[in-house]
Amino acid sequence: MFEGVIGYIIGGAVIGILARFFKPGADPMGWILTILLGIAGALVGSRLAAMLNLTGTVMVWACAIVAAIVLLFLYETIRKKTAKAA
Q1: CA 48 → CA 6, 10, 28, 37, 83, distances in Å?
Q2: Residue 41 in contact with residue 68, Cβ under 8 Å?
Q3: Mean pLDDT of each 10-residue bin along the chain, 86 residues long
Q4: pTM of the model
Q5: What letters, b where the CB count within 10 A reaches 16 and e where it falls short, cover 45-71?
């Protein structure tokens, strides 16, 4: 079980870093939020890949990275709205 948690953290970090690398613009967030973004992207991306019947490892990782990029856009949108409201 412990190996699974470590795997999600490492995979989330890799996916989060790749999402921040591929998305243009500055992303002022820390490494913990990057890992959480990557983990959420991995979960959403793996569900999306399963719904699309994509079984290849590369395709599942691509879906995870794309999902993390979308989540990063959503995070920035929400952060900008709360900054304007304050």
Answers
A1: 23, 21, 27, 16, 31
A2: yes
A3: 77 91 80 90 90 90 92 88 72
A4: 0.84
A5: bbeebeeeebeeeeebbebbbbbbbeb
71 closest CA partner among 45, 49, 47: 45
Give 34-37's long-range contacts (Cβ < 8 A, gap of 24+).
35/9, 36/12, 37/12, 37/68, 37/71, 37/72, 37/75
Distance of alpha carbon 30 from alpha carbon 16, whole angstroms:
11
List the chain domain ranges: 2-85
